[in-house]
Prior knowledge:
Layout: E1 2-9, H1 15-24, E2 29-33, H2 39-44, H3 46-63, H4 79-103, E3 107-110, E4 113-116, E5 120-123, E6 126-135, E7 139-141, E8 154-155, H5 157-160, E9 169-173, H6 177-189, E10 192-196, H7 208-220, E11 224-226, E12 230-235, E13 241-247, E14 250-256, E15 258-261, E16 265-267, H8 274-277, E17 281-282, E18 285-286, E19 299-301, H9 312-326, E20 341-343, E21 348-353, H10 356-361, E22 366-372, H11 377-382, E23 388-394, E24 400-407, H12 415-422, H13 427-432, H14 442-451
Amino acid sequence: MSKYDVIVLGSGPGGYVAAIRASQLGLKTAIIEKESLGGVCLNWGCIPTKALLKSAQVFDYLKHADSYGLTVKEFDKDFGKVVDRSRNVAEGMSKGVQFLMKKNKIEVINGFGKLKAGKKVDVDGKEYTADHIIIATGARSRELPNLKQDGKKVIGYREAMSLKKQPKSMIVVGSGAIGVEFAHFYNSMGTEVTIVEFLPNLVPLEDEDVSKQFERSFKKAGIKVMTNSSVEKLDTSGKLVKATVKTKKGEETLEAEVVLSAVGIASNLEGIGLEDVGIVTDKGKIMVNDFYQTNIPGYYAIGDVVPGPALAHVASAEGITCVEKIAGMNVEPIDYGNIPGCTYASPEIASVGMTEKQAKEAGYELKVGKFPFSASGKASASGEKDGFVKVIFDAKYGEWLGCHMIGAGVTDMIAEAVLGRKLETTGHEVLKAIHPHPTMSEAVMEAVADAYGEVIHL
C-alpha cells in the first residue's frame, strides 16, 4: 500500500492545481485520473472551445475583409481541420499538465479511483492511503428526461466540439455560456442555428442590459432566438430531429440535423465511494465548510462537486485554499461575491458582483454608469463597436458593487473590476487611475465617470 500526505481524485483545474500547491508546500502528493490530465476544462471545455471560437473569429474577419479595406478573393473553411486544431490545442495543454506533474514530483495514478473508509482510495484493485484526500471529480453535461443524449442526433458539449461533419442545422437548448458559445461557433461556420431558452432572456444570469444587448447581437448575426420557450419532446426517428417547442403563443415544431443539449451540468459523484465513507451530499453536491472539509475528517471536496459557481478559476482557487489550510497556513475563505464570470461568444460577456436589479433589491442607493463601445476610439478602429461597460456603485460609500461588460475582448478586461473590488476601491479612485489611450479598457474609466456625472466622451 502506497502512503501519501495528499491524494487528489481528479486532475481538472481544481485537482491538478491543488496537487501542485500541495507539492510546493512539501506534502507528498499523488493525483488519480481515469482519462487525460487536465480534466474536462483542458480536454473538453474551456481550452478547446476557445480554439474553435478563434477559428470562427478568423473566418468572420475573412467574410468581412472589405470592411477593413482588404480584398480576399477566395477563402473557405475545412471544418475537419478546425476541429483537429482544437483537439491539438487540448492535447498540448494536457501534455503541459503532465510536465507540471513531473516538475513538482507528483505521482500520477491512472485509473478510476473509489474512496474507502480509513483515508484510503482504491484504484482498479490497488489501494492507496493518505492523511488527506481531496475529491475533485468535476462534472458532465446534464441530461433531462425529454432530452436524452444519443451522441449523434442529440449531443452534449463533448460531441459538439468533435463532430466529424458540420451539421447544416442545429437547435441549441439552453443559453448559458456553453449554449451561446457553441451557437456562435456553429453560426459563424455557416450552420443554421436556433437557440431555445426557458427564461425570458438569453444568458439569464447576467445583468438585464447585457442580456438584451447580447440578444440583439445574436439576432443580427442570423441566429434565431426563442426565449420563454422550452423543448417538450424530441422525435429522432427521421433523418432530421423534430423538436416540439412550447412557446407563449403555443406549440411549434422545429427541425434540425442536430440538437445540442446545454442545460447545465451534473456533478460526477456516482461510483466514487461517498456512501461507503459516509460523506454527506445534498441536491447532487458534496457538503463542505469554508475550507472544503467534508463531514468526515481527512476527506475534502472542491470544484464542480461542491455548491457554488462551476467555473475553472473557482475550482483552482478552492484547491489552493483547501491545501493551504491542510498545510497549516492562515488562509481567508474565498469571497464568492467577487467571482468573475466570462462568456466567450461574440460579443464576449464578462461580469463580477451584483447586477443592477440585485443591488436595488439589496436596498442600496445606486450610482450607475454606462459607456458604449460605439464612443470608443479603439473599438471604432477595430471595427468592434457593439456593446458597453456598465458599473454600479453604492451612492453612500462609493463601494463598487458590480461591473458588467459586453463587447470585444471584455473577458480580458474584467480583472480590473475584480481587483478593484478586492482592494475596496471607490469610484473616485478608479477615475483618478489614468487609463491608456486608445484602449477598450478606457471604457471602464468612462463608465465610472458617467456614474459620477463626469463623463467626457459622451
